[in-house]
Amino acid sequence: WTGTGEELDSDRSENSEEMEIIVNVGGVRQVLYGDHLNQYPDTRLAELVNCLSGGYDRIFSLCDDYDPGIREFYFDRDPDAFKCIIEVYDFGEVHMKKGICPICFKNEMEFWKVDLNFLDDCCKAHLSEKKEELEEIARRVQLILDDLGMDSSENSWAKCKKCIWKFLEKPESSYPARVTAITSFLLILTSSVVMCVGTIPELQVLDSEGKSVEHPVLDKIETACIVWFTLEYVLRLISSPNKLHFALSFMNIIDIFAILPFYISLILTHLGTKLMELTNVQQAVQALRIMRVARIFKLARHSSGLQTLTYALKRSFKELGLLLMYLAVGIFVFSALGYTVEQSHSETLFKSIPQSFWWAIITMTTVGYGDIYPKTMLGKLNAAISFLCGVIAIALPIHPIINNFVRYYNKQRVLETAAKHELELMELNAGDQKGSGTQDKPAHLLGNGNEHSQWRRHQKFSHSDTFIHLLSDDNYYRTRLQSCK
């Protein structure tokens, strides 16, 4: 549209405070008034009221199209998000409706130049959660890209360490890596079973001193398992990109506790007798052998379910704290009452309040060993109330803990799918750029033909319009008409 100078002069002469404009957002028309919009002069709508005096260049820098006849501004934006954003002029705050993508809504607020501080606190929390999800997707995508690509500037030793790390830490990277992971998982189970079976008296043998020891065959199986665990840990430590972070990782500390008792016991058995009495050596070896139970925790390295349970419990510290607080209060109250009312009985089993704690614990948790029990009528009534309160106290926090587990498990599945989806879109983008020329293609997606073939072998591709910007490249920023799912 091109207008005459007379029309522009006519527009400039009107008072912006009393002006009324028509805004058409995605086909939804709305009449707005200048005095209403000028409450927040830095927003795009307030600039529309005052833009007519700046000519059509100024007008079209703020909107997609303009009809001077009816003074209607056209925007190719999301009308649902606009209905929420326009509330800032009425209520001084913005609420995000359910079903709108938080990231898209943030982009809409930035387009309309409405400060994010006007967003309600509950909506800010939702936006923050979505940002964390996108950062997690970006991290997963970057890890996969790092695995697929090799830096040609690295020396052979650095490349070898990357290959070893990928082989041991990424079971899905290749078939041999998957076989190795399954083998390690089976050896952990075998080692745990051997530890349990070795305590069966019928399978034990007598040593030279006539004492029962583990069968030599079981001892050899355990030695083979420990050798495998040791070799696996050493290779992972050598190939680790960050050795300090590797050594302080919880799962790697568990690996150390699963391996060290074997070697310490071996050293004490062969050298300890020269330094201390034989009895002390045997006691130390026996204590170290009990530490072998820590190797069962190595299963968490190969089980996503156990990892999810661990993370869910970390997120449920508040609920677990409430559970322990309820039980602690109940245990103290009912043990004191039980001790007091049972003192009237001559054969009472409640000797003291601290001793009554044990009775209160097994009663409130509905275990009831029966080693300590009330004998008076009031004591039995106190016991009945205590286990009823125990059932209620345990049941109350359980539901939030289960919800945290289910929510985290589903979230991890969604993030995993989203990361794969993002890689598919990046491959499609790289394929389009390869067809039109490679001058604009991102360096980490181009490489040589072998790397591109390797990329295609690892991924399955499908067309989609849900691309979201995660990495730093400008080519990956979402256009304003795209939305993320």
UniProtKB/TrEMBL annotation:
The keyword RNA-binding does not apply. GO terms for molecular function: voltage-gated potassium channel activity. CDD domains: BTB_POZ_Kv5_KCNF1. The chain crosses the membrane at residues 244-268, 320-341, 381-402. Residues 21-122 form the Potassium channel tetramerisation-type BTB domain. It comes from the Eukaryota. Residues 430-450 are annotated as: Disordered. Keywords: Cell membrane, Ion channel, Ion transport, Membrane, Potassium, Potassium channel, Potassium transport, Transmembrane, Transmembrane helix, Transport, Voltage-gated channel. GO terms for cellular component: ciliary base; voltage-gated potassium channel complex. InterPro entries: Ion_trans_dom, K_chnl_volt-dep_Kv, K_chnl_volt-dep_Kv5/Kv9, KCNF1-like_BTB_POZ, SKP1/BTB/POZ_sf, T1-type_BTB, VG_K_chnl, Volt_channel_dom_sf. Residues 178-412 form the Ion transport domain. It is a multi-pass membrane protein. It holds the Pfam family Ion_trans. The keyword Ion transport applies. Heterotetramer with KCNB1 or KCNB2. Regulatory alpha-subunit of the voltage-gated potassium (Kv) channel which, when coassembled with KCNB1 or KCNB2, can modulate their expression and their gating kinetics by acting on deactivation upon repolarization and inactivation during maintained depolarization. Accelerates inactivation but has relatively little effect on deactivation. Coexpression with KCNB1 or KCNB2 markedly slows inactivation. This is Voltage-gated potassium channel regulatory subunit KCNF1. The lineage of its organism: Eukaryota, Metazoa, Chordata, Craniata, Vertebrata.
